[in-house]
C-alpha cells in the first residue's frame, strides 16, 4: 500500500485523483486531505477515504469538521504541516497558486515522491526547486498531461534532444484576433477538449497555459528553450512527444482525460488497469493535425518564451500579473486581450534579478500583483 497525501483534494485534479484511488483501493491509502473552503466536498471525501489528517482554510470549516470527525486531526491552512509531518509515500500537490511551492519544498527536504500538478512551483522557482530535489533525492513526477507524456516517453530523460509540447489551441484557434477582442467569458470558458478549472481554461484560451508549461518543461527535463517546441494539435490525442539524439520521435497518445496522467504519477513505475476510459481507436479518430502556433494572435505564448529565456524573477512576475489579470477578466473587469497586455506591461517595467532567492521571488510576485492591479483599475469600465 502506498500512503498518499492530497493537497487540493476538492479541485479538478484532486477529485479526479480520488476517483483514480477509488478504483485502486488495494494499492493506496489516503492519509491526508487538504482543501480550501469546500467543506461539503471534503467532508464526503473524508467519510469515504478516512484520512488521519484533514486541512481546511478557516476556523469555521475546521470546527464543523471537528464535530463530525472527533478522532481526526483537523488543521487550519495546514498544507505545509501535512507535507512536513504526515507519514506519506507520495504527495499530490494539486493546490493552485504560488502557495503550492511551500509544501513542495518541505516534501523535497524529506526526500519524498511528489506528484506535481501545481504549475507555479516550477514556473516561479524551478531554479531553486530542481537542484533541491536532486540534493535530497526527491522524485518529482509531473501530473500535467504534456509533462506526463514526455515523462512516459522517457522517464530517465537519457538521449532526449528536444521536446514537442502539444496544445489544443483552445476555443479561439479558428477565430480571428478581432473575434478575440470581443470574446465573452462564456466563449472563453468553453474549451473544446478539456474540462478544467476556470483559471486554467482562460489560460488555455490565451495560450498562457502553454507558455507556463514550456517554462515548467525547461526545468523538469533540463532542456534549453531552443529545444522546446510548441505545436498546435486540435484533436488533443498526442499529449506531447520527444525527439531523441538520433532523430527518432516518440509520442504518447490517448483520449483527452486527466485520469491517466494522474494515475501514472501515483502508480509509477507500475502501470495498472485503473479507471476504464473509452477505448482508444486510432481508425475512429482518423485524422491528427499539427500546425505552428500563431505568436501574433497569442502574445502570451511569445512572452512566456522570452521571459523563460531571461529567467530570474521574470517568470514569477509574469505568472503573478497574468493570474491577477485572469481573475479580473473572470470578474468582468477587463477584456480577454487585456490579460496579455497587462501581463506584458508588468514584465516590461520589472528590473530583473538574476539567481534570485526564494524571498526575492516572493517579493517580486507581490510587486507584480500590485502593478497588475493598478493597470486593471486604469482599464476598468
Ligand atoms: Mn496541460
What does this protein structure show overall?
It contains 17 helices and eleven strands. It has 381 residues and is an alpha/beta fold. The model has no long low-confidence stretch (mean pLDDT 96). The structure holds manganese (II) ion. The site of manganese (II) ion (MN) has 4 residues, from helix 7.
What layout of secondary structure does this protein have?
Blueprint: E1 2-7, H1 12-23, E2 28-34, H2 39-49, E3 53-56, H3 59-68, E4 73-76, H4 79-85, E5 90-93, H5 101-109, E6 113-116, H6 119-135, E7 139-142, H7 145-153, E8 160-167, H8 177-181, H9 185-188, H10 198-206, H11 208-220, E9 228-232, E10 238-244, E11 249-253, H12 259-267, H13 282-285, H14 299-310, H15 314-330, H16 336-348, H17 358-379
Parallel strand pairs: 1-2, 1-5, 2-3, 3-4, 5-6, 6-7, 8-9
Antiparallel strand pairs: 8-10, 10-11
Structural class: alpha/beta
The largest sheet is:
7 strands, parallel
Count of individual helical segments? 17
SSE sequence, one letter per element: EHEHEHEHEHEHEHEHHHHEEEHHHHHH
Indicate the mean pLDDT: 96
Rg value: 20 Å
Q: Could you give the order of strands across the largest sheet?
A: 4-3-2-1-5-6-7
Q: What labels describe this entry?
A:
381 residues; alpha/beta; 4-stranded mixed beta sheet; 17 helices; 11 strands; 48% helix; globular; binds manganese (II) ion
In short:
With 381 residues, the protein is α/β, with parallel strands linked by helices. The protein has helices at residues 12-23, 39-49, 59-68, 79-85, 101-109, 119-135, 145-153, 177-181, 185-188, 198-206, 208-220, 259-267, 282-285, 299-310, 314-330, 336-348, 358-379; strands at residues 2-7, 28-34, 53-56, 73-76, 90-93, 113-116, 139-142, 160-167, 228-232, 238-244, 249-253. The protein is 48% helix and 15% strand.
Amino acid at each position: 500500500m502506498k500512503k498518499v497525501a492530497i493537497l487540493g483534494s476538492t479541485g479538478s485534479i484532486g477529485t479526479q485523483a480520488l476517483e483514480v484511488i477509488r478504483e485502486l483501493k488495494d494499492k493506496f491509502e489516503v492519509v491526508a486531505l487538504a482543501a480550501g473552503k469546500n467543506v461539503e466536498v471534503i467532508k464526503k471525501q473524508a467519510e469515504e477515504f478516512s484520512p488521519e489528517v484533514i486541512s481546511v482554510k478557516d476556523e469555521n470549516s475546521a470546527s464543523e469538521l471537528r464535530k463530525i470527525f472527533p478522532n481526526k486531526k483537523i488543521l487550519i491552512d495546514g498544507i505545509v504541516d501535512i507535507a512536513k509531518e504526515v507519514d506519506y509515500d507520495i504527495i499530490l500537490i494539486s493546490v493552485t497558486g504560488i502557495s503550492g511551492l511551500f509544501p513542495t519544498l518541505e516534501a523535497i527536504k524529506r526526500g519524498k515522491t511528489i506528484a506535481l500538478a501545481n504549475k507555479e512551483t516550477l514556473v516561479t522557482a524551478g531554479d531553486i526547486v530542481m537542484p533541491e530535489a536532486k540534493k535530497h533525492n526527491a522524485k518529482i513526477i509531473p501530473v500535467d498531461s504534456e509533462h506526463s507524456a514526455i515523462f512516459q516517453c522517457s522517464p530517465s530523460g537519457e538521449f532526449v534532444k528536444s521536446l514537442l509540447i502539444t496544445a489544443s489551441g483552445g476555443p479561439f484557434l479558428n477565430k480571428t484576433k478581432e473575434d478575440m477582442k470581443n470574446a465573452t467569458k462564456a466563449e472563453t470558458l468553453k474549451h473544446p477538449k478539456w474540462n478544467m478549472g476556470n483559471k486554467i481554461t482562460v489560460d488555455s484560451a490565451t495560450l498562457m497555459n502553454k507558455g507556463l508549461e514550456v517554462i515548467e518543461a525547461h526545468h523538469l527535463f533540463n532542456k534549453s528553450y531552443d529545444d522546446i517546441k510548441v505545436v498546435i494539435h486540435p484533436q488533443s490525442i498526442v499529449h506531447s512527444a520527444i525527439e531523441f539524439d538520433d532523430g527518432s520521435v516518440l509520442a504518447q497518445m490517448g483520449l483527452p482525460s486527466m485520469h491517466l496522467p494522474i494515475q501514472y504519477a501515483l502508480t509509477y513505475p507500475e502501470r495498472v488497469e485503473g479507471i476504464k476510459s473509452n477505448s482508444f481507436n486510432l481508425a475512429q479518430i482518423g485524422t491528427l493535425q499539427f500546425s505552428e502556433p500563431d505568436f501574433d494572435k497569442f502574445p502570451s505564448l511569445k512572452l512566456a518564451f522570452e521571459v523563460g529565456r531571461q529567467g530570474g524573477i521574470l517568470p514569477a512576475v509574469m505568472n503573478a500579473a497574468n493570474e491577477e489579470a485572469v481573475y479580473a477578466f473572470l470578474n468582468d473587469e477587463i477584456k480577454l486581450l487585456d490579460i496579455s497586455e497587462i501581463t506584458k506591461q508588468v514584465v516590461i517595467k520589472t528590473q530583473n534579478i538574476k539567481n534570485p532567492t526564494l524571498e526575492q521571488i516572493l517579493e517580486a510576485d507581490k510587486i507584480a500583483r500590485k502593478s497588475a492591479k493598478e493597470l486593471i483599475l486604469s482599464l476598468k469600465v
